[in-house]
Amino acid sequence: MLEQITNEAKTYTKEGKPAFYIPVLALQSVEQFAACIVDENGNYFEVGNTDELFTLQSISKVINFMVACEYHGLQFVLDKVDVEPTGDPFNSIIRLESTAPGKPFNPMINAGAITVVSMLPGKTAKDRVAYVADFLSRITGSTHQVNEAVYCSEIETTHRNRAIAHYLKANDYLLCDVEETLEAYIRLCSLEVSTKDIAKIGLMLAGNGAYPLTDEEFITRNTAKVTKALMTTCGLYNASGKYAASIGIPMKSGVSGGVLCTVSKGRVEHLEGKLGIGVFSPGIDDIGNSVAGMKFIERLSQTYDLSIF
User: Fold this and answer.
1) For the chain, which has fewer Cβ within 10 Å, the N-terminal or C-terminal residue?
2) What is the pLDDT of residues 253-284, one digit of tens each?
3) How many domains, in total, are found in the chain?
4) Annotation says 17 is catalytic
């Protein structure tokens, strides 16, 4: 059945388009498809090149939120960023202007994510990126570096994010300088990972912060629970409600085509218990979610009854 689900998902790869507004990402081939599932016993299902690297993009928002919460404490972060869905595009500024006191609605939209990045430990943007990259490496066992070509491509076209950052600074939500925050934010979006890496992150979240294969605790149970709640309600841009209803598992997507998923308890053929799922296919829809990736996860959830609802 997994092979059938995979083959069906692959037929949707050309229905999406790469993120055209980021010049380097616009060059990605939409025919790529990779998926990885890992369970709490170390069993894997892999299809495609699960070691091929791509940039985190908005999946970094999940990582940054966890790091900020562990460094400052959950309440400190939530004082600056709320946990409410918006229903708006990820780069919208309208809620900052229309609701007092201009507090970002959640860490999964750009306004909230930029605020979270300003809280990350480190004196410079590169220090903050290094801290997060080290956190990632401890979970995945891989080395994570910034794709400089993607970073340069994004930083040159980040005018809307710069406007958001200035608005946040004016309302006293940023903890550091606008340009320093933006540099760190874009560099973190440009960190490279593989499909297998994000499956491992999903497995750690399935263990409520403790990696099931080693029992090492990376984040507290409370941080993990809030992170998964945010992924479920806000993780797929303004299609989050739709996918919560049709798939029903915590997920976070990025416009490079990656999708991070976590399942606290499930069974998928020979895989069972806590599951981490990573998918990569760079053809995205108008909202920013991988078309083939979401088809794969939707069929997976419906076939094996993985929904939390």
Assistant:
1) C
2) 999 999 999 999 999 999 999 999 999 999 99
3) 1
4) no
* Domain residue limits at 267: 2-304
Q: Which of 146, 255, 263, 291 is catalytic?
A: 255
Query: Is residue 93 situated within a structural domain?
Result: yes
What CATH number should be reported for the domain holding residue 156? 3.40.710.10
From the candidates 58, 60, 92, 118, which is the catalytic residue? Answer: 58
Q: Would you state the pLDDT for residue 85?
A: 78
Catalogue the long-range contacts made by 159-165 (C-beta closer than 8 Å, 24 or more residues apart).
160/91, 160/93, 160/110, 161/91, 161/110, 161/114, 161/185, 161/186, 163/93, 164/91, 164/93, 164/96, 164/110, 164/111, 164/114, 165/114
Q: Is 290 helix (H, G, I), strand (E, B) or coil?
A: strand
What is the mean pLDDT of the segment spanning 184-200?
98
Give Cβ neighbours of residue 210 (< 8 Å, ≥ 6 apart). 204, 216, 217, 218
Residue 273 lies in a domain: yes
Q: Which of 33-47, 158-172, 213-227 shows the lowest mean pLDDT across its residues?
A: 158-172
* Residue 17: strand pairing partners: 284
Residue 309 lies in a domain: no
Give Cα separations from 100 to 78, 170, 242, 258 (angstroms). 16, 13, 28, 34
Please, are residues 257 and 250 in contact by the beta-carbon 8 Å criterion? no
| Predicted pLDDT at 100 | 57
Mean pLDDT (whole number) for 183-190: 98
Q: How confident is the model at residue 157 (pLDDT cuts 50, 70, 90)?
A: confident
Radius of gyration of the chain (CA): 18
Which residue do the tokens 């299902």 mark?
Answer: 45
Catalytic residue among 12, 24, 47, 61: 61
Could you identify the residue written with the tokens 């791509």? 54
Locate tokens 């790091």: which residue? 67
Active site residue 255: yes
Global model pTM greater than 0.85: yes
Question: For 62-90, what is the mean pLDDT?
Answer: 88
- Roughly how many angstroms between the first and final C-alpha of the chain, as a whole number? 23
* 21 catalytic residue (yes or no): no
